[in-house]
Amino acid sequence: MLALRHGVLLGQAQERVSLSIPERDVSEALGIPLRTPAMKLDRVVFTVNEVPAEWRVGWCLLRNGDHYLAAVQ
């Protein structure tokens, strides 16, 4: 909606999922001890002209099959 409001035509996105050690603020948001591995979701959305338009980093933790999103930078 925001892209349309500003005349930006979005195209493809690339997302990378990795296991990483989050910084202190993310660990606190997830309620996990420091240096506990969590899933890092790194996503870039490009315009139809292949110009990066959005970069989002999210962290999540899987517990008992549930997905908890904690922080987006």
Return the average pLDDT rounded to an integer: 86
Low-confidence stretches: none
- Cα-based radius of gyration, to the nearest Å: 15 Å
**What is the tally of helical segments?**
2
**Overall form:** elongated
Class of secondary structure makeup? alpha+beta
Q: What spatial order of strands do you see in the largest sheet?
A: 1-2-3-4
Encode the helix/strand succession as letters.
HEHEEE
Beta percentage is over 45%
* Oligomer class: single chain
Distance between the termini: 20 Å
Sheet having the most strands: 4 strands, antiparallel
Helix content: 10-25%
Number of strand elements = 4
What's the structural blueprint in terms of helices and strands?
Elements: H1 2-5, E1 10-20, H2 24-30, E2 38-47, E3 52-63, E4 66-72
Antiparallel strand pairs: 1-2, 2-3, 3-4
